[in-house]
Amino acid sequence: MRTVLLASTLLLAAGSAMAQSRTPIPDPSILTPERVFANPSLAGPVAQGVSLSPDGQLVAFLRAREDDVSVLDLWAAPTGAGEPFKLIDARALVPDAGELSEAEKARRERMRISQRGVVEYSWDEQGRFILAPLEGDIYLASRADQSVRRLTTTSADEIDAKVSPKGNFVSYVRDQDLVIQDLATNTETPITTDGDGLITWATAEFIAQEEMDRDTGYWWSPDETYIALQRTDESTVDIVPRLDISGGGARTVEQRYPRAGRPNAVVELYVQDRAAGTRVKVDLGANADIYLARVNWSQDGKTLYVQRQSRDQKTLDLLSVDPATGASTVIATQMSTAWVPLTNDFKALKDGTFIWSSEESGWRHLYRYARHGRRMGAITSGQFPVKGLNGVNEATEEVFFTASMKDGQEQPIEQQMFRTTLDGGTPVAVTPAGGWWGVSMNRTATAYVGNYTDLETPPQSGLYQADGTFVRWIEQNRLDERHPMFPYLARRQTPTFGTLQSHGETLVWQMTTPPGFDPSKTYPVVMQVYGGPSGGGVKVGWQPATNQLLTEAGYIVFRLDNRGEGDRSAAFKQALYLKMGQPEVADQLLAADYLRSLPYVDKDRIAVMGWSYGGFMGLMMGTEPKMGLAAILAGAPPTEWSLYDTHYTERFMSTPEANVEGYAASDVIPRLPNLTGRLLLMHGMADDNVILENSTRVIDALQARSTPFELMLWPGQRHGVRGNERQLAQWRIYLDFLDRTIGTRSHTQ
User: Fold this and answer.
1) Which is nearest to 307 in space by CA: 390, 206, 200, 208?
2) CA separation for the pair 577, 361 (Å, rounded)
3) Per the residue annotation, which of 177, 687, 688, 695 is the catalytic one?
4) For residue 478, what are the CA distances in angstroms to 460, 472, 495, 551, 742?
């Protein structure tokens, strides 16, 4: 028997060797999922969170480690001579990162922070220190000697840490109370002491973090005399029990979640006199059911400016507050028949005037106001939206802003920084055209960090003078033979761009074809979609590596920004008001019809894939019979808008009671009998944003109809799949599902 077994083993080994000799060697230029989700990142050494010191002499930035892209270190570079250097090594200071508190997990989820290590930092206004929270404790880096000092060693997390404007104190929230630490004496002073349970001080509430782009709940005055801070009482908010399911078990979370039409948390604003230890309440008006939208100080610290948004979001008031008494006066008001958007464009100037943006012309533009709210004139105007106020040089009266504009007209797929004057001169482009610029200026607007990308340039960061003169690279991210993406460039396809017309609006699209594309053949298409209110996805910029996974698999990749999506005109954005899921789907149907008109598109093999609002769009498109989709890949979809939160949902849909028809039309469940293709549904089992109930109701309805579908749930994951290993699994599933539904195996089964 042993002889027979040995012979069999030798025969099998020989057969295996012969088989291996016949197996073709994989082409090393073909990008694989295994390489996309591995270290180092294919994006190359991308600098994140880049900012200039207040005096413009040092640049700080975050960089992922080469040995682990999930961990960030803090780096710095002089703006003159000298090489970048690592200021805080996250692994060296905290070799074994522990579990974050639930409050910090939730805060990072709201901020869309998925990495660990140094994930945020802040300068003092003198530029002497950089403060960096690291795994629950606080570290202070000194610019003078590059030393790093640990400030806290507590078991509790310190969150939302800041250096005071003059650099004398550090402040942070611990156990729901605000604490300040004197850097000279290392002594702590609690500013509040009754934070507990449903009462939280100095922390932005869930709605502010998730939907209002406000991540803090306290604000130092420039002279360190006062601290404005919010008090949040969640006792009014409904408890929405949800299961938090991980690989190690399940627990029930009694989450305070303000659903559309239901009560919000009660938010109050106070001003603390730091030295005197006294506190006054700010008069926000008689109606407590409002949103604390923005808080800013005048440059002399004598006036607190508060933006108060009505619950229906159709009114935004600017309040001037006396910090000594809390008394307030409404000095300016913006109104809309749909909603007034929130921005970070408010800027108080030394002479007491201020800059504020408005959409009243139909486009977002900048205006200058006198101290007491009288509008002095427009700073920008034209048929384009300002994307953001970057800085003001008060010595030269120059105003810097970003916009997608050419010759005063909207150009949505590119973005540049422009320069104008306080009295509204003709804008002049500071950065070159042809790609996508993001800009961070120093406080005096004499220099800026420019983050640039285009179709052939991965994200790179450079330092520039205010007139656009290049000073030095911060992270050039040169696309040479040393770049991680270099081996795969030969098969990287360049997107083409085009437009479609819908209801008087111009929609932009981009399309990428597979390597070796032959227009005489037909190809399946993957329509990537988000579709909801956002900055838009069609742009002249470096494309994600996952797009190349799709083109390598033989798919045309197509994306259209429908009405409602993108920082464009008020009319373009407001097209979905009270009817989410209707104009967006109509525009995507227009895109599908356009695709089918192309001779190289296989009309019967079109799929849609999207996450979050894109998951909702996937289900809405997949249940629109005229779309005729063969496959739908929907992740974390909101499926009934009354399950979602107040500020986001009511902004676009009003309340369920006031818009019964609109909510009913956007409910996915009644549409499921019209499902045209195979469905792959995914959801994180610890999602505290689009809670799992949104998907379980779809699962239940499909099972009740005996409709086959595929499901992938992610234990422990929130509103996204994190980490290389799980993302690799996710994309293996995506590619397998597409292959079976519209790819090579779809017409052989």
Assistant:
1) 208
2) 18
3) 687
4) 8, 14, 21, 24, 37
What tokens appear for 369 in the block? 């106001």
Q: Is 160 a catalytic residue?
A: no
Question: Cα separation of 35 and 164, whole Å?
Answer: 44
End-to-end CA distance of the chain: 43
pTM comes to 0.91
The tokens for 361 are: 């012309």
CA 508 to chain centre: 21
Whether the CB-CB separation of 357 and 389 falls below 8 Å is answered with yes
- Residue whose C-alpha is closest to residue 97's, from 118, 67, 127: 118
Q: Known catalytic residue: 612? A: yes
State the catalytic residue, choosing from 561, 569, 719, 746.
719
State how far the Cα of 596 lies from the Cα of 619, in Å rounded to an integer.
20
Q: What are the C-alpha distances in Å from 324 to residues 227, 280, 282, 302?
A: 11, 7, 10, 9
CB 284 within 8 Å of CB 272 = no
DSSP for 269-318, written as a single string? EEEEETTTTEEEE----S--SEEEEEEEE-TTSS-EEEEEEETTSSEEEE
- pLDDT higher than threshold 90 for residue 649: yes
Pairwise CA distance, residues 245 & 723, whole Å: 18
Task: Evaluate whether 64 touches 75 at the Cβ level (below 8 Å).
Answer: no
For 709-732, how does the pLDDT look when each residue is reduced to its tens digit (9 = 90+)? Answer: 999 999 999 999 999 999 999 999
Sign of CA dihedral 32, 556, 580, 705: negative
Give residue-wise pLDDT tens across range 70-93.
788 888 888 877 788 888 888 777
Cα–Cα–Cα angle for 557, 560, 565, rounded to 5 degrees: 140
Residue among 51, 320, 404, 612 flagged as catalytic: 612
Domains annotated for the chain, with CATH where assigned, are 343-454+457-493 (2.140.10.30), 494-741 (3.40.50.1820)
Nearest to 475 by CA among 112, 76, 68: 76
The alpha carbon of 452 is separated from its chain's Cα centroid by a whole number of angstroms, namely 18
